[in-house]
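Practice problem 4.
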């Protein structure tokens, strides 16, 4: 592939793994510190050490998987999976806290708006009830009692006017709240839009996206760390010895060579006595000594 041919691909992979793992650790530590707010500093140190240990353990398991015993292998693997779940829980706490901080004012205004709308419905029902009661009271009186009917109207009119004033005031408050919701809803506008699109509430949509993020975030960080180890070692783990072809070389047949040693013979010079003796022997051989002429 193209990226594998680039010289800086392995450093890029290592930087990406470190960057994703660092962000996951930050969000997790922050979320856990909010969960245990009574000991924030202690939780930060504890969670940070566990995050570092998780990454180192994942790399160690890849490199030395074949030489560590079964108990150690199982314990470390369970530890890494458990730390991934803890990190995901911390990220969930961080994102939930951020969502609540962004929507707390929106929720306050929404709750107030619902209360005002219910109050408006109740006042309108009270107004209708007063009018019906007034009509029924007037109907019970004879037609020749106009004064009594007028008094009844005068008695009910202030009540109806008061309800009308309350209705107008609540309608004004509802209008202001709706305008405030539009301004506040900018921060959570996408969530509101998705909630309306899927026909559900905002909390359900946000929870769904938070779960999607936490199921991808930290597992991806650990996977990238292992991938960096694979790229760094070339797929050969630390304890593995690459296979080498054993070539058996045939020994050449030994050639026996006969070495002749030349011995140097020293020639010895004869002594004077040996020379005289040798000369006498030569004369005897020639017949020159001890033989007379006849």
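Answer key:
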């Amino acid at each position: 592939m193209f990226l594998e041919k680039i010289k800086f691909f392995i450093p890029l992979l290592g930087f990406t793994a470190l960057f994703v793992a660092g962000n996951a650790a930050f969000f997790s530590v922050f979320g856990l510190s909010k969960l245990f707010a009574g000991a924030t500093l202690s939780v930060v140190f504890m969670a940070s050490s566990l995050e570092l240990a998780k990454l180192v353990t994942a790399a160690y398991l890849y490199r030395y998987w074949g030489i560590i015993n079964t108990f150690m292998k199982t314990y470390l693997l369970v530890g890494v999976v458990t730390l991934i779940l803890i990190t995901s829980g911390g990220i969930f706490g961080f994102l939930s806290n951020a969502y609540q901080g962004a929507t707390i004012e929106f929720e306050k205004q929404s709750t107030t708006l619902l209360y005002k709308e219910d109050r408006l419905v109740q006042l309108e029902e009270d107004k209708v009830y007063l009018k019906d009661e007034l009509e029924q009271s007037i109907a019970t009186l004879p037609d020749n009692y106009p004064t009594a009917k007028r008094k009844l109207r005068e008695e009910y009119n202030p009540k109806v006017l008061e309800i009308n004033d309350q209705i107008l005031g609540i309608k004004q408050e509802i209008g202001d709240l709706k305008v405030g919701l539009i301004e506040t809803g900018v921060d959570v506008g996408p969530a509101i839009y998705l909630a309306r699109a899927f026909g559900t509430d905002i909390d359900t949509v946000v929870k769904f996206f938070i779960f999607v993020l936490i199921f991808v975030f930290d597992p991806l960080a650990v996977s990238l760390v292992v991938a960096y180890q694979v790229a760094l070692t070339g797929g050969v783990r630390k304890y593995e010895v690459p296979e080498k072809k054993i070539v058996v070389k045939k020994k050449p047949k030994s050639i026996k060579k006969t070495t002749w040693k030349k011995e140097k013979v020293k020639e010895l010079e004869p002594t004077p006595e040996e020379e005289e003796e040798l000369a006498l022997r030569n004369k005897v051989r020639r017949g020159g000594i001890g033989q007379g002429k006849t």
